[in-house]
Amino acid sequence: MAEQLNAGCARPTGGPVGEAPADTGEKQEERKEASKMVLIGRKAPDFTAPGFHQGKFVNVKLSEYLGKWVLLCFYPGDFTFV
Amino acid sequence: MSVDSMFVHKMWNDQELCRMVEGGIPFPMLSDAGGKVGKVYGVYDEEAGVETRGRFIIDPDGVIQGYEVLTPPVGRNVAESIRQVQAFQLVRESKGTQATPSGWRPGKPTLKPGPDLVGNVWKEWNTSLAFD
Q1: Which of chain B's residues have a Cβ under 8 Å away from the Cβ of A69?
Q2: Which of A3, A25, B39, B51 has the fewest CB atoms within 10 Å, measured from its CB?
């Protein structure tokens, strides 16, 4: 399902997919404050992200999982204890 | 998903996690450099430069049905996440004709919302059902 990635020296990155939020012209400071949660009942923002899965490096796109239930978990970092 | 690179994910899996989970982590360990995805979901802590313990349940249509966010020192309850997915699956399969009251888990009674249930939940459900 996920596209396999070749491990080069550059660190691959992903990010949100789709339309960028419109520039509303607010001041930079105001925008920093507005770190809002997504809303339940709304579409989960699509993204791509490089990752490690069963011995391979892969590039995962959330929308490839349409038709399945997904648990998306964020955590502070590898080798943290909890 | 965390801000660590996929290389660090590999080392964590190979050096430590595979000693806790036979065969290693079965799902993709995703890398979110700079917290770009975490910001969109509202779980990126700008000051700490890391993502908090956010867990999102996304249904087959790509719709977020629930989430939970914890600060770093407290771990999640995996059984509770699975219970919630089972409840959302039941509601979806019933096309919204059934609802799962507080404390529901597979095998416990569901509710069928409608005019006849108004004021009559006490006949169908009691507080002991809220607990395991």
Answers
A1: 57-60, 85, 88-89
A2: A25
Chain B residues closer than 8 Å to A70 by CB: 56-58
pLDDT digits (tens, 9 = 90+) for A32-54: 555 688 999 999 999 999 999 99
**Contact call for residues A12 and B6 (beta carbons, < 8 A):** yes
Which of A14-23, A30-39, B53-62 is least confident? A30-39
Write out chain A residues lying below 8 Å of B44, CB-based.
35
List chain A domain ranges. Answer: 1-18+43-82
Which of A1, A9, A73, A79 would best serve as a mutation to test chain B binding (most B beta carbons within 10 A)? A73
Pairing of strands A56-61, B44-45: unpaired
User: Closest Cα partner for A4 from A44, A54, A40?
Assistant: A54
What DSSP character marks residue B51? E
**Quick check: B125 pLDDT over 90?**
yes
